[in-house]
Amino acid sequence: MKKTLILLMMIVWMTACGSGVDRADTADSANTADTADTADSANTANTADTADSADTADTADTADTADSANTADTADTADTADTADTADTADTTPEAIPYCEISCSSSIDCVTNTTSPILGADNYSCNDGWCVYSGCNSDAECVEAITTGYGCFRKNNVGSCVKKCAVVSECVNAAVTDGAYSENNYLCTGGYCEYNGCNSTVECQESMGGTSDSYVCHQLAGMTMKVCVRGCNSPADCETAGMALYDADHYKCEDNICQHQGCQNDTECAAAMQHTAYQCND
Question: Which end of the chain is more exposed for a tag (fewer CB within 10 A), N or C?
Fold first, then answer.
């Protein structure tokens, strides 16, 4: 489950950042699954985790998926992507940080899950010796991976399995009427649900109110929209218990926002991604 959440995150970050960003640390961030918690931050990267992503809400809906990463596995998957995708356009170039990735000589080396139709060799590229998730390739892949009603929405050269729509109201869970994953946080773009980010910190507090953390609506460097991220007074406020990749010494607390600083060694990558193929690409 942790790996799925982690993976979900990545997609969101990748779609939100654009094709120039191969990996995003998604870390504490991404939330995918119709959920989107995107929260912690962003950084996600090859990961893709996204799923209905930001949607967090509908689905999974999990939220704070936090800790995130390579992708895909996810499920509602796209939805996240669904989301997070988005946006507008960022002007800041994120500081280069080391990420957990798989080294490769061809895209076949990137496959760690042989059963998912959105995690095959044709869903990856091998760039400069490292695997980069490119997402789904067709609506049919998404229907097979998730269920009927989902399709492959491509943005910034990343494909995400998201809900299909005729109107925005079809993008959200009918039970969600407020918070960061309600109707006013989505767009119905070309028949696909696209998460458009949070609109206020109040929304984030409504959606993440069940956690002990304080979330704020913030646009992270390299992203093209605002998302719910974890606020802080010190790095200790940012850590996720039980995961070395997301403990306090992997964060900076800048402007009261948790900023993940990437991986420090291969061991923590293998543990977080639950696969020994992952290494710290520094």
Answer: N
* Confidence bin at 212 (pLDDT 50/70/90): low
Distance CA 218, CA 202 (A): 12
Contact 81, 15 (CB under 8 A): yes
Convert the pLDDT of each residue in 20-29 to its tens digit. Answer: 333 433 333 3
Q: Which amino acid is at 115?
A: T
User: In terms of pTM, does the model score above 0.85?
Assistant: no
Question: In degrees rounded to 5, what are phi and psi of residue 132?
Answer: -125, 120
Could you list the residue range(s) of the whole structural domain that residue 160 is in?
2-281
Q: Are strands 130-133 and 124-127 parallel, antiparallel or unpaired?
A: antiparallel
What total of structural domains would you count in the chain? Answer: 1
Q: What span, in angstroms and rounded, lies between the C-alpha atoms of 212 and 184?
A: 26
Contact (Cβ atoms closer than 8 angstroms) between residue 34 and residue 57: yes
Q: What angle do CA 100, 224, 206 make, to 5 degrees?
A: 90
The encoded tokens of residue 4 equal 């799925």
Question: pLDDT, tens digit, for every residue of 160-173?
Answer: 999 999 999 999 98
Burial classification of residue 166, based on how many CB atoms lie within 10 Å of its CB (0-12 exposed, 13-18 middle, 19 or more buried)? exposed
Lowest pLDDT segment from 6-20, 101-115, 196-210:
6-20
Distance CA 118, CA 245 (A): 26
Nearest 10 degrees: Cα torsion 53, 56, 62, 68: 30
Report d(CA 112, CA 176) in Å as an integer: 35
If you write DSSP's letter for every residue of 145-198 in order, what string do you get? HT-TTEEEEEETTEEEEEEB-SSGGGGS-TT--SSTTSGGGEEEETTEEEE---
Task: Give the number of other Cβ atoms within 10 Å of residue 120's Cβ.
Answer: 17
